[in-house]
TrEMBL record:
Source lineage: Bacteria, Pseudomonadati, Bacteroidota, Flavobacteriia, Flavobacteriales
Protein name: Phosphatidic acid phosphatase type 2/haloperoxidase domain-containing protein
Coiled coil ranges: none
Highest taxon of the lineage: Bacteria
Domain Phosphatidic acid phosphatase type 2/haloperoxidase: from-to ranges: 135-249
């Protein structure tokens, strides 16, 4: 069993590092002469700025932002009406789910593997002075710190009962320290979706995005099969992660925190002129 867990952890780390290294190293030339120590200090300061920006955003929300929040809450309420039936359905399927899938979900969403993977990613970007990898890793770190703090406080504040304990999805024990009442939101989902979304945003290729999101969805789905969370726990955790990542990513680009240049791509278009058909490439 231990060897199986080790192999799964290694596979996940290898997949992430291989996917990122291939894309980022090819698209980013090392030209920064700044010392590694100064780069690390700059990244630390930027990470703090990112977290501060995230928590201060609600103070600057506009009408459309509150409308978006209302839409999310309405959607969550609608999904909550099938929480009990939905959870029961997933739990019934669990015996037929391959053990490797469940183990991979547990591993990928665990803090240990999550932080080891990101430490490796950041370390590679730092020592090779690759700005794009550093920026992506700081995006992940900032977002995960923000979402992690929110989900940790929410678990205790709401004290929602977990499935399979004889309680319904509407059972809450506010400010509870009992693990059986720490269902909302899903911590595994927060970590896996945060990393997957941050990495997927760096790719323009749709198949690369699909691969990253597919890997990131393993943990949330596995938690439903294991009966650890209700569907709304997973759904709202995913929404939280996506919103935070998008907000921090936008902030970093707007403030030009990292000034790497994006790849110039050729845009191919079909041209119809009279009885001729041509292909035009725009640089």
């Amino acid at each position: 069993m231990k060897s199986q867990k080790l192999l799964i952890s290694i596979f996940i780390l290898f997949y992430i590092s291989k996917l990122n290294a291939q894309h980022f190293v090819e698209s980013e030339k090392i030209s920064d002469s700044t010392s590694i120590g100064n780069l690390a200090l700059y990244d630390l300061k930027q990470g703090i700025k990112n977290v501060g920006h995230s928590f201060s955003r609600p103070l600057h929300w506009k009408k459309k932002d509150f409308m978006t929040l209302g839409t999310v809450l309405v959607g969550a309420l609608a999904l909550s009406t099938i929480d009990d039936e939905g959870s029961a359905f997933f739990i019934r399927q669990e015996p037929d789910v391959p053990n490797v899938f469940q183990e991979a979900g547990t591993r990928f969403g665990s803090p240990q593997v999550y932080f080891i993977a990101n430490a490796g990613l950041y370390g590679f970007g730092l020592f090779t002075k690759n700005e794009k990898i550093r920026k992506t890793s700081i995006l992940i770190i900032s977002s995960s710190f923000t979402t992690g703090l929110i989900q940790s406080l929410s678990k205790t504040t709401f004290g929602r009962a977990r499935p399979g304990n004889g309680f319904k999805s509407t059972e809450f024990r506010f400010w509870s320290n009992e693990p059986g009442f720490h269902s909302f939101p899903s911590g595994h989902t927060v970590l896996s979706v945060t990393m997957a979304h941050a990495i997927a945003k760096q790719f323009n290729n749709i198949w690369s995005k699909i691969g990253v999101y597919a890997l990131g969805s393993v943990a949330p789905i596995s938690r439903l099969f294991s009966g650890a969370h209700w569907p709304t726990d997973v759904g709202l955790a995913a929404v939280l992660s996506i919103v935070v990542v998008d907000g921090i990513d936008k902030f970093m680009f707007q403030t030009k925190a990292y000034k790497y240049k994006k790849e110039k791509r050729i845009s191919w278009n079909l041209s119809f002129t009279g009885n001729q058909i041509g292909v035009i490439g725009t640089f």
